[in-house]
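In full, the data.
>
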Amino acid sequence: MSKQQWTIEEDLKMRLDKYLSENSDLSRTRVQELAKAGEIFVNGKAAKSSAKLNLGDVIECDVPEDEPIDVEPENIPLDILYEDEDIIVINKPKGMVVHPAPGNYSGTLVNALLYHCKDLSGINGKIRPGIVHRIDKDTTGCIVACKNDLAHTAIAKQLEDKTCHREYLAVCQWRH
């Protein structure tokens, strides 16, 4: 576990999760998880991820070390819709998990990407290299993976700023 600390030196009027995602190597989702687990403190008190920060606030965060796991490349066929030197767009099939997690350490999209690509963005660490967003295991659809940190940062910022968007289409069948 590593303890990290920040002091708010400007009147930012910003949420805690947004501030930490922009001023640390933690993703906004990871900040929200840590806050929910009571690992983030503002001025000595456990804080919610939605807490508004004020000038002079001191943020402390106990960041648990990631469990080391080795994600192995696997020769899993990919339905590649687009690929260049920066990104790869995959049509993820139903039933495929995006990244390794307890109970699913192989057969994931990340395992397949590690086999297919020489490099992937390292922003999300060894478990989720290149992954900017995910879709559920039982959902079929397009997913973008980044081959370098510059592309990853740019696409993540576009998603955060809502200057790009995702569309969902559901197909339903009515049975009597």
In short: The beta strands are 2-7, 40-42, 45-46, 58-63, 80-83, 87-92, 141-146. The radius of gyration is 19 Å. The first helix runs from residue 16 to 23. The longest strand covers residues 2-7.
